[in-house]
UniProtKB/TrEMBL annotation:
Domain Metallo-beta-lactamase, chain residue ranges per copy: 18-268
Pfam families, sorted: Anti-Pycsar_Apyc1, Lactamase_B_2
NCBIfam families reported in the protein's UniProt record: PRK00055.1-3 (NF000801), RNase_Z (TIGR02651)
Residues at which Zn(2+) 1 binds: H62, H64, H139, D210
Active-site residues (renumbered): D66
Protein name: Ribonuclease Z
Gene: rnz
Major enzyme class: hydrolase
Subunit structure of this chain's protein: Homodimer.
Cofactor(s) the protein requires to work: Zn(2+)
Length: 315
């Protein structure tokens, strides 16, 4: 699971930061999932190592322009490229009307199947490897956050030990790898658990934006290996954050701390914190680290491999 930030500004793009979009790459299955799609996201793809042809799912948090204005352009380009097999999109109820209107008035024809699903609290997608759920956040318009949970995998299967026990290779190994019991021709019963190492605990990625501090974000982020959370404002601008229902750096850190997350990556920064302003982005980082030390700030094109629980987290 590798996260690449394609846009880390809030509201409007800047010279160094585009508006919101985060890609989750699943290399083992050759897929790419996208979270939000602000204006210019398809240009960010061109400047990155990501392949649009691998895009299979898009998750939209809410209907503000800095999170959706790039969506129709990206979908149209995917169709013209001809490499996308199909795309499933998840988002607020208004998203389908928005996309259908864009398709109708621009007379765009997509050369691949497009399915649109409403993101309601709870599980919205599941397969053999992953579960995706969402929950309500607190913003000026209906907004949700997303949680991607990788399912636990069996531990490493000890082939040499199996051979030493006289277990013949073949389909029976598959059962043992899954931890099942098997019965050999001589009557011996052997448990696959005894031939496998400790299970690989699935990783958890959580994406929360836009929102002011709320219980929904804390619940969604429980035990996350990586929490990506908006930090639009400095703690010194908390009044503005409450008025606009956005988070400060300290609110993001408080969510991470309360949820028991392993790492916090802040994003969605206000362009106001530029050189010349008495408050700079580094100040936001120090504010957050005072509460949750394992915090970093995202920047456009940062790629980060989400480690398993027993690995060190290095940027």
């Amino acid at each position: 699971m590798q996260v690449t930030f394609l846009g880390t500004s809030s509201g409007v793009p800047t010279r160094s930061r585009n508006v919101s979009s985060v890609a989750l790459r699943l290399p083992q299955r050759g897929e790419l999932w996208l979270f939000d799609c602000g204006e210019g996201t398809q240009h960010q793809f061109l400047r990155s190592e990501l392949k649009v042809s691998q895009l299979t799912r898009i998750f939209i948090t809410h209907m503000h322009g800095d999170h959706i204005f790039g969506l129709m352009g990206l979908l149209a380009s995917c169709g013209l490229g001809g490499n996308v097999k199909s795309i499933d999109i998840y988002g607020p109820p208004a998203l389908e009307d928005y996309l259908q209107g864009c398709i109708r008035y621009s007379q765009t024809r997509l050369a691949y199947p497009l399915k649109i699903y409403q993101s309601r609290p709870g599980v919205i997608y599941e397969d053999d490897e992953y579960v995706v759920s969402c929950g309500y956040l607190k913003h000026r318009v209906p907004a949700v956050g997303y949680r991607v949970t990788e399912k636990d995998r069996p531990g490493h299967f000890d082939v040499e030990k199996a051979k030493a026990l006289g277990i013949p290779p073949g389909p029976i190994y598959g059962k043992l790898k899954r931890g099942e019991w098997i019965t050999l021709s001589d009557g011996r019963r052997i448990s696959g658990v005894d031939l496998c190492g400790a299970p690989q605990i699935g990783r958890k990625f959580v994406y929360c934006t836009d929102t002011v501090f709320c219980d929904g974000a804390v619940e969604l982020a429980q035990d996350a290996d990586l929490l990506v959370h908006e930090a639009t404002f400095s703690h010194r601008d908390a009044d503005m954050a409450f008025q606009r229902l956005h988070s400060t750096s300290t609110m993001a850190a408080q969510v991470a701390l309360a949820a028991g997350a392993k790492r916090l990556m802040m994003t969605h920064f206000s362009p106001r914190y530029a050189p010349g302003n008495p408050i700079l982005l580094d100040d936001l980082l120090q504010e957050a680290r005072a509460i949750f030390p394992n915090t970093d700030m995202a920047y456009d094109f940062l790629s980060y491999e989400i480690p398993r629980f027993d690995q060190n987290c290095q940027l």
